[in-house]
Design goal:
- With 553 residues, this protein is of the alpha+beta class.
- The chain contains 16 helices and 18 strands.
- It has helices at residues 3-22, 79-83, 112-119, 173-177, 187-201, 215-219, 253-258, 266-272, 277-286, 336-340, 371-375, 421-425, 451-460, 486-499, 510-522, 532-535, and strands at residues 30-32, 35-37, 128-134, 154-155, 160-161, 169-172, 180-183, 224-227, 241-249, 261-265, 291-297, 314-318, 330-333, 351-361, 378-385, 391-399, 435-446, 468-478.
- The strands form 4 sheets. Strands 3, 6, 7, 8, 9, 10 and 11 form a 7-stranded mixed beta sheet that branches.
- α1 crosses α13 (451-460).
- The protein is globular and about 70 Å long.
- 45% of the residues are buried.
Amino acid sequence: MSDDASVASSASSTEHETQLTRQSKFKVLALVDGIMIEPVTSHGDDDDGDGGSHFSGTDDDDDEYTASALIERLAIGDEDAVMQQQPSFQPGAPGQHSRCTRSSYGPYVGSMDELEDRIGPDVDGGLIFTLKILPNNYNSMGEKKLKFLQPKDYDPQSQTPKPRRKMPFPVTVDDFYGSLTRIGEPVDVVGEELMDDLWDRDGRQCANSTHNTNSDEIESRPPRWVFTGVINGWPGLPMPLEVLTIQTRDPSFLGRRKGFTTSWNRDKEGRVEGKSPSLCCKSASEEKGLQVKAKLRAPQWSAHGWSRSSPGFIFWVEGQRVGAVNPPLVVTYGTNLKSHFRCPEEDDPQITRVHMINHRYATGGTKVESQKDKLTYHGIVLLEWDHAKYCSVVETGFLNGLGGYRCKSNWYVDRDALETNLYAAFPPEMIMPWKDTMSEIRVHDVPYPDLDSFLGFMKKHSGHEGRFVGTNVSFSHAVRLTYRSRRNIVTYLLNYIRRDRTYSEMKRNCQTFAADLCGFLAGKRDVRPYHPVNQIQYTTQKHKFLYESSEYR
């Protein structure tokens, strides 16, 4: 494509881009895998006295994390600067919209059968979340003397914790224990049924009795305590959450050195002794002045997708087209993509070329690049289609990396707007904290017909005051795969992410994914990650695109 043609093809989007940029006064924060994130902070031994570390997306709030632990993170700001810009838009009931940051607590009022169906079988595998249980009077001394909560996590106007904090999420005693519901049978009932089962197996009861004598079914009936509601304004946290443990710690120096001790465990106090969490632990914060945290487990399906009905951590953003001005966006995720893209074969677009593009992250102009920063590259795959109406950016990153940070994507011109079109389009179930040990695949349609025009967009946003630094194209080739329609591509990506959902700095990240996808689509054996650091432990995983993931366990 000539330079003149490239300029002409991108001219239609320039006016729109300029218009949206004028509306933006949003401070650049940090970038991970092409999306906006907040800075990394760590408090090791938790000397701030709030009950845990302050690193986003972690399951264990006592682990220590540092910025050097993540190869694709650059911190350029602070979280409060973002939260002050949080839109006031609060539509409908809590949890019903991606932009709603309200919480919801209280007793469960629905059907118990429905609740048991939603929590699913009592098996390991669901995502784990942690809560910080605050005393009801945690703010009685004012915002400068908060109990177990940092001032930066407190909103003095509403006199409540700020919404969408990092784990462990802050919840007051009354809100937490008032939102618990017991499902299953009380311990004394379970004991009686076990005795009846022994009596029946001893041959002293009629063989055709209608009484339940299946020991496996009885084993599944012991009590379970589950939490329902919307925690800390995160609408995507998969409900209900089963309480696994509640731990306490003395906030003194010696107490912090000793660490947390388990005050309630669902297997011991819950199932053997039949005690509820509130009976054992409700007074720990209020009367004993202890720091309290709870560990909760989501339903098993939560480890496989954003909903039970559509597994697969992949989403596709549609709507952007060449010449379209501020178009509405549509976000579809998981296996629903297969039916969403179903159409007659002749109407299904085909990919024609595949490119691997790499870039470093901009520092915002206020930070000098470190040696590590200069080694940190994000790799993406650009797909060209036969209709030339748009290209598609395919990348992988931390699970919920986009939904957890107000959907600020580098690939759209309104990234720095107070509220992006993508944020409004995101389903609420995809808005939850990111997890840096798991991955998701993101596909964004972008309004550029080919590689040259897309590189023009990246060039416009280049430099440390922009978005991209050191942009280069390390691989370009015609797509030689026989079946290469949009629906075929969705199937390949679903197979890949459902076979392996992990994320690793060295072995499974954005660059290794880009190498796998480019080599697979182009039919090339020698495609490798861009940077030599990522080539050290790289082993191609191209075969994972081909095979039906549900056939592997």
